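Checked the freezer inventory, then went back to the computational side. Two predictions to log before the end of the day. The first one is the construct we discussed on Monday; recording sequence and tokens without edits.
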Amino acid sequence: MLYVLSFVYIIISENLIFVFLALELSIITSYLLIWYFGYGDRRRVGLLYFIWAQIGSILFLIGVAMSGTYLAAVFKAAGTASLMVLVGLLVKMGTAGVHFWLPYAHAEAPTPPSALLSPVHAGLMAYWLWRLRDGAGWPLETLYLYGLTAAVYGTSLVFRESVNMALADSTIANMGLLVAAAAVQKPELSYLATAVLFVGHAFAKAAGFMLAGIYIVRLHTDLDQLKWDTWVLALGVLSFVTLSDVFGINLLGRAMVAVGVSQALAAILLIATLSSTALYSFYLLHKIYKGGQAEVPTDGGMYLSALAAAAAPFIILMAVFAI
């Protein structure tokens, strides 16, 4: 409950010192959840996560302190202060170059925190990228290109991992997209793109980690040795189709990010990002499908929450078009 509460204060706090305190609350609570309830080498991974998360938060705090402005509405920073705030946020997002902690922490965390840690906790930093970008004076075109490059790099990691780790690696790609969305030149369009991609990724990735959790808890195995029944296949299809951005609310977010393209290099990176994320999503779905069909013994309640999360991006898209 404290972990979820920290998300609220990360967003609603106007004083950036309070934002830092909310970040600390999120770090401590999620670290304890990984330490006590995670899978595999949870204590080593929990410590790795804690150190990197603290680095990001402390860099953010030092940058804010150096700027001398603590209210988000009047935030101004330049030079080293601006750079430290930016790097701190990128570390906490786990984008390419500062991502080393992310795949291990998200894959080893227990299922409920994984469903929050990967899409929500890391993704919330994109809000502060968008909120502080004008006051910090970050070069938006450079940040946009970096985001797309990070998305392509994160996608490349998916193909060398197990399915369970690949779900975490795909977060690196999606965080890159959120960086690009937060750097779109038009502020209103940038906000919409960031919000839409955040929501779509949050639901789809949560469903993916819930699917992994079903197998870990019920079959005591991971997704590389799974079998599927009708419910599992439906859950996998809904989750990975959304992550591929072929359909679902993420498709609108990608379209908004595409509007931000203003040069040939960005266009090439955007095409590479769109095609590679679709490729890795259907690659993961294929790995599930080729495991073969069998009955998966589990209660309906576990599937119900996962299917609700997987279906949400499609329901939201239909609601948008209905409006």
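The second is the one RB wanted added to the comparison set:
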Amino acid sequence: MTEQPIVPEFNEDETYRLRLFVTGASPNSTRAILNLKEICEQYLKDNYEMEIIDIHQQPLIAQEEQIIALPLLIKKGPGAERRLIGDMSNREKVLKGLGIS
């Protein structure tokens, strides 16, 4: 018997606005990008906008957002702003942080 993954319900009218802050092409940054893209494609389909920001190329945005650790995901909406630190490999934590679990 194979377990099917539980797909959380979300409002299809809401677009998730995500900002992922990374530092160059470091292994952690690369993992975070790949993991987050996979999660978004599986759970959010076409209901998300993801902006990937390299703090070396755009330091003013990083300063404006008061970045303290990398990689860092900021969920701008829907709902309250949430911040998640790490390579986004803990799927349960990411889903909970996005408010879709």
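For RB: Strands lie at 16-22, 48-54, 72-77, 82-85. Residues 16-98 form a domain with the Glutaredoxin fold (CATH 3.40.30.10). Let me know if you want it refolded.
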